[in-house]
């Protein structure tokens, strides 16, 4: 994906993006990048979606999340609290709207409704204010110049929503759910109706406990709905934070799926972006996001592992 830029407004942004299927049979990572002027605001929207159980939830989120956010009361307010509430509600409305689509999504191999879900890592920039929202384990970091040490360090803007986190485990268990370890990975348990079951799902329906999903929050994953509490074991509730971007010290932002973060720490990524940027006039062979993704893919290969879908957006400030 070729570099693009937005020169209007308070901040001047230079953006590149790259997505690679890796060694997987299907490509379920998706990107959304949108620059626009609306109601007097210059806005830039960036998102990485890492789908699982099919690409349908990721596709739906890419096509609809930003629009659902903008439709919410308070989104165009100057009050950050109102904007954050609008972003939160936009996530929840996107998730809720998937109920109307799931019937048209491919069923599982056993004939059950789709188990598609997706992470969402979102950066929304308006003026010099940046809103960060996410569910799942697609991460966002900022490269910030530390004036005291005179170096650029990685500042995590998100923390993965993993089932083993005490807060997530407690939330899941409070709903009657479980977290189980399978092959060294903690997963949210799917209370799946026994394959012999036919008809509506009731409290008396016999179930199998399947260690299923390695993230504790997502959009989609409607299988995790608990009819007793009316809530989801895999929560669509985003973490949201607000930041003032300072071009004097804030250098760049990277959004990426776990195909990148599983191979490179945030400081590794920070260092590599700086290295690529310092040598950009000397080298050919792709922009920074391209190089980041292929650096991660080389590490997958070096470890003799089948590379995950790997996606990155790099925003230079």
Q: How would a crystallographer describe the biggest sheet? A: 7 strands, antiparallel
Shape, per Cα inertia axes = globular
- CATH homologous superfamily name? PPM-type phosphatase domain
What class would the helix/strand composition place it in?
alpha+beta
Total domains, how many? Answer: 1
The helix fraction, in percent, is 10-25%
Mean pLDDT: 93
Please tag this protein with its features.
single chain; Phosphatase 2c, domain 1; 7-stranded antiparallel sheet; 6-stranded antiparallel sheet; 6 helices; 18 strands; globular; PPM-type-like_dom_sf; PP2C; hydrolase
Description:
The chain is an alpha+beta fold and 317 residues long. The chain has one domain: Phosphatase 2c, domain 1 (4-Layer Sandwich), CATH 3.60.40. 24% of the residues lie in helices and 34% in strands. It contains six helices and 18 strands. Strands 3, 4, 5, 6, 7, 13 and 16 form a seven-stranded antiparallel β-sheet that branches. A six-stranded antiparallel β-sheet has the order 1-2-18-17-8-9. Strands 10-11-12 form a three-stranded antiparallel β-sheet. It is globular and about 65 Å long. The N terminus is likely disordered. GO terms for molecular function: metal ion binding; protein serine/threonine phosphatase activity. Belongs to the PP2C family. It comes from Branchiostoma floridae (Florida lancelet). InterPro entries: PP2C, PP2C_BS, PPM-type-like_dom_sf, PPM-type_phosphatase-like_dom.
